[in-house]
Design a protein that fits this description.
alpha+beta; homodimer; 22 helices; 548 residues; globular
Chain lengths: 548, 548
């Protein structure tokens, strides 16, 4: 991706909505060819920007906090750490959900907080939560604002709690226990760099890594791209400290126990509705990237690739860390945008029966100790060979790794071109995976001009996730409703065929309407009871979160 | 162990208290020599049995259920499945906690249920729980009755729910997802045999395996002897179905998700206080015992053995399945009771510096795919060698495996000899493990005539469990209070030095008094809120469980 170095003014909606590097980027030539073909765009179309959001931010809703509230917060946290101007409130009013980006492009900020407060310590968080409980002010804990589920909106106003400004320190790296104790607001890169300096890695690399925090990872139950080997974030959390209206919950860092349940697990997936996570103790891993064994494979069909993946996961010879399959739709796009399509190598593949429209890429890394990584990779290569996959070297994996965070930046230029694009994801057992996969494709294919890419990227003994990326021209003038209807139908299709509401994005406000039907009344009532106990006045991220 | 084939009459306290084979066993000659030396027992002493409990069972407390209650239960479940006689009530009044065994030997049954009911289906459990909620009758879910925490007592009477009689079927083995759906009351051996027939194993082999159920494993958060590789039971549970007074909770078998928290995890460790688990879906493993690589090692000190164990767990080259260290006290007993002490091999070991009183045994298996097991074992052997441990072949591991369930049968003949013996266990991080270990030894050593053996048997990246077995002459005539005081001091010592209340036995009524101090008021209040929501009338295993 090439950047045009024209820094956007910082007071525009566009500055808020842009993901990744705030500079403007150019779409490369392979992508342009593809967009022209898929959506019939002309050179003229490519020069225009649809709903660019270049207006200056102005909020309609005034801050409803009283001067006395702001005085209290300012005297507690320092006045530099309490912001109530329009731009700050708008910036902290949302995450990066497609619907939120559309709102910003339309110059709208429907659910701004009344103020943004950046506490400087756990104790300040305790006092803020106490004060807000007494005053019935909503509190929305916020980290890197990469939520794609509407989890950061403030429909009841209140304060957005910026944990990134001060609560971002590593407290202790314990090399005897191989754990780290860290404040919740630390961002991925700072966390990983500090661990690397001590010879460790956090093992958690979601696509949002550059703009997400430890607290956010836990709250949304995130998964890193190498989660098949390292586990999801809830597998890495050993203990945590959380401030709730009912008091501070601090759990101990035992390796395992049998004294009731692991209370820290209630905060993984609570998405800020129970309290504010201020600290966590996590497992860490040896930082030895030179040990990583990588391999790319190609299969003649998605079904064959999935079957080989399942065999790997159930063979009990160790597991990969990164483990992905791109379905034919995504493989096709990868081949076209990388310029591979039409090369001699491509013709060779086709000659071997790896045809466009059915062939699938599989990417694997095995990490950890060097000989272990080699051993497991050897086993995987044998399984893949038996499963009719073909080894294509490690180059494609390295290329993918190099752009694994920045590929998400593409959403903004696509939206500039009037293209609707969003991602959904689900967890599903092996016996239902192909059904969900094909039903989702059928659903999207029914929309003229729409297409979908699906990949598997987090894999378990008993199933995997499916990750859906769809693209379609926007219905201009009716962008929001059109999207909402299309999105709803896709979620219904995924869940109706046996997928979960979410595997690692969380639920937020966007997917909340599906919760009760999916979990059942008894389970929802139980979650509600926990919420009521910890947050009796419903000040913690209130307003439709998780269906509570 | 040699059995004397004089079957005990079935209506005595002794028949209830005996663990394992109900026949009388003889203590072998090595053990007799040891007992004579450790406790100054004479040949005369060895012939007598202290508090043998041979009296016929008679309860002081009459059943408080009304005829109408028994009629309802009989018409619902069939009259064969409702028992209210003294013997049945006594049998289902307790588990196998030392204090309970003492009570039985003293001819006392302090907390019998009013009846024992064996439901024939999930739906019958639903109706029983509904009825008992309406009638305020306590319900104590029971499986194999191997609890060592007083979890099965009925201080408020009510009904013991025998899940083993009918709810003991495998519902489905799903070989695509590599999971099994099973009723909660199935016993370990029946479960494993059926899985073996399909090429699978449950991977969960607690010492109580022969007399414990899937539902009990989950309720108490048990750990099998190969848990280092296969995980604790809570790691194996994918989904479950539980009947609570607030309705049936049924969770889905997604591999992972991010839609709130894993509600099934609340029932792991709830010990029957939230509801009755009737079904569970669990991960299963390939049954290939021929692939297992085994190795025994010996170290010159406990500290060196622990350091090597920690290195293995943190090296990221795969993990052992069974992984144990016997501390010098336990190693000494093992060498003496196996007849190894004083042999040429023993003298050779001593010549190499592996001295009685400091040397430690380590046992390892690696299971799974054959070449994987060999690969990981090779890595472990290298780590152990560098850590100054010495390979001693796989014979000792095989011997240990052969008696791994029956060694617990020894408690009864020891109690016959007036010897108090009990086990405790804890989870602790590596940085506190040696402190807990030495403090526990110091505590026991302060009691004249007492000694303790400790082992590590469940190991994690960040720590391990410690398992304590102590022996001491009983204070005759004051057996109960003497034990209670001694036990309390040991628990205080373990927790005070950084151990958890329990790693895999659970809390029950015995350890409940430590819960609030250990977990903190906020966490206990949260657990209580969950209990109140699911069981508002407190009918589920009431009376001091878990400190609720």
């Amino acid at each position: 991706m090439n950047y045009i170095r024209s820094m956007e003014r910082e007071n525009t909606y566009r500055h808020i909505l842009k993901w990744g590097d705030k500079r403007e980027e150019e779409v490369d030539s392979h992508m342009i060819t593809l967009l022209k073909e898929k959506f019939g765009l002309t050179d003229e179309d490519l020069k225009k920007k649809h709903l660019p959001g270049r207006e200056e931010v102005r909020l309609e809703k005034p801050s409803l906090l009283k001067p006395s509230h702001l005085d209290f917060l300012g005297s507690l946290c320092g006045s530099d750490n309490v912001l109530a101007d329009d731009l700050s409130r708008a910036r902290w009013s949302c995450g990066k959900f497609y619907g939120e980006l559309l709102d910003l492009r339309l110059g709208q900020v429907p659910d701004p907080p009344d103020a943004v407060v950046a506490p400087r310590s756990h104790d300040e968080v305790v006092k803020i939560v106490e004060y807000c409980s007494d005053e019935k002010i909503a509190v929305i804990p916020a980290g890197g604002q990469s939520s794609v589920t509407g989890a950061l909106r403030a429909p009841q106003g209140g304060i957005a709690l910026d944990l990134t400004k001060h609560l971002n320190r590593i407290i202790e790296i314990n090399s005897v226990n191989k754990t780290v104790r860290v404040e919740a607001g630390i961002m991925g890169p700072a966390f990983e760099e500090e661990l690397n300096r001590h010879g460790y890695s956090c093992g958690h690399f979601p696509q949002s890594f550059e703009y997400s925090t430890v607290g956010g990872w836990i709250s949304a139950r995130g998964a890193g791209q190498a989660s098949t080997g390292y586990g999801k974030i809830e597998d890495m959390v050993v203990a945590l400290k959380a401030v709730t209206p009912a008091g501070v919950i601090e759990t101990k860092d035992f390796p395992r126990m049998a004294q009731g349940w692991d209370i820290h697990r209630l905060f993984a997936g609570a998405e800020g509705t129970l309290g504010v996570i201020t600290e966590a103790t996590l497992h860490i891993f040896n930082h030895a990237p030179e040990n990583t064994a990588s391999a790319g494979f190609i299969f003649r069909s998605f079904e064959q690739a999935v079957e080989a993946m399942r065999t790997v996961m159930q063979s009990e010879y160790g597991k990969p860390h990164l483990f992905r399959i791109s379905d034919p739709g995504e493989t096709d796009i990868a081949f076209r945008t990388s310029g591979f399509d039409g090369t001699t190598a491509d013709r060779l593949l086709k000659g071997l029966g790896f045809m466009t429209g059915s062939r699938c890429l599989m990417f694997v890394t095995v990490e950890g100790e060097k000989s272990y990584a080699r051993f497991v990779m050897k086993k995987i290569r044998r399984t893949v060979r038996r499963g009719k996959g073909m080894f294509i070297g490690s180059g494609p994996v390295r290329k993918w790794l190099a752009q694994r965070y920045s590929s998400a930046y593409m959403r903004d230029p696509l939206m500039d071109l009037g293209i609707m694009t969003d991602t959904l994801e689900t967890a599903v057992t092996w016996d239902k995976l192909l059904k969900v996969w094909s039903a989702a494709h059928e659903y999207v294919n029914r929309r003229p001009g729409a297409f979908m890419m699906i990949h598997i990227s987090h894999v378990y003994e008993n199933g995997a996730n499916l990750y859906f990326t769809f693209l379609s021209p926007m219905e201009r003038g009716n962008e929001r409703q059109d999207f909402a209807l299309f999105h709803r139908g896709l979620v219904d299709t995924i869940i109706g065929n046996g997928g979960s509401i979410s595997h690692h994005h969380g639920v937020g406000r966007v997917l909340a309407p599906w919760m009760e039907g999916h979990l059942g009344k008894s389970s929802m009532a139980l979650m509600t009871a926990v919420k009521k106990h910890l947050d009796p006045d419903n000040i913690m991220n209130p307003g439709g979160m998780l269906g509570l």
